[in-house]
C-alpha cells in the first residue's frame, strides 16, 4: 500500500517520469527521468514518513543510469511501520 500510494504521489509531484520498484522487505528504488526530481522524490518520502508512521531514509546514493526512460536512481531503505506501544 505504501509503495502504490508513493507511486501516485510521485507521478503528480515530479516533472518527468518517475517509477518506484520494490526490491525487498525494507528496500526500494525510485527511478527518475530528470535530476530536478531527485529532491522532490526525497521530500515526498519524508512527507509519507510523517503520515504513514514509517522510517524510510535516503541512503545517500544516487546513481546516474543510461536508460531510455529513466536517468537517475535513488535507493531508499527502512520501509518498516512504526509500532505504538
Specify the helix fraction band: 25-40%
Q: What is the strand tally?
A: 4
Number of continuous helical runs: 2
Using the alpha-carbon principal axes, give the shape. globular
The count of domains is: 1
Mean pLDDT, nearest integer?
Answer: 81
The major β-sheet equals: 4 strands, antiparallel
Q: Kindly, what is the distance between the CA atoms of the first and last residues, rounded to a whole number of angstroms?
A: 23 Å
Order of helices and strands: HEEHEE
Strand composition percent: 25-35%
Strand order of the largest sheet: 1-2-4-3
CATH fold call:
Alpha-Beta Plaits
**Architecture (CATH level 2) name:** 2-Layer Sandwich
Describe the structure.
This protein is an alpha+beta fold and 85 residues long. It has one domain: Alpha-Beta Plaits (2-Layer Sandwich), CATH 3.30.70. It has two helices and four strands, in the order αββαββ. It has helices spanning 2-13, 37-52; strands at residues 18-22, 27-32, 57-64, 72-77. A four-stranded antiparallel β-sheet has the order 1-2-4-3, covered by helices on one side. α1 (2-13) packs antiparallel against α2 (37-52). Residues 81-85 have low confidence and may be disordered.
Amino acid at each position: 500500500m505504501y509503495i502504490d500510494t508513493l507511486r501516485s504521489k510521485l507521478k503528480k509531484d515530479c516533472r518527468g517520469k518517475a517509477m518506484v520498484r520494490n526490491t525487498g522487505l525494507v528496500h526500494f528504488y525510485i527511478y527518475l527521468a530528470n535530476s530536478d526530481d531527485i529532491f522532490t522524490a526525497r521530500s515526498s518520502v519524508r512527507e509519507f514518513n510523517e503520515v504513514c508512521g514509517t522510517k524510510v531514509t535516503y541512503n545517500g546514493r544516487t546513481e546516474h543510469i543510461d536508460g531510455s526512460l529513466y536517468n537517475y536512481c535513488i535507493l531508499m531503505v527502512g520501509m518498516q511501520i512504526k509500532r505504538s506501544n
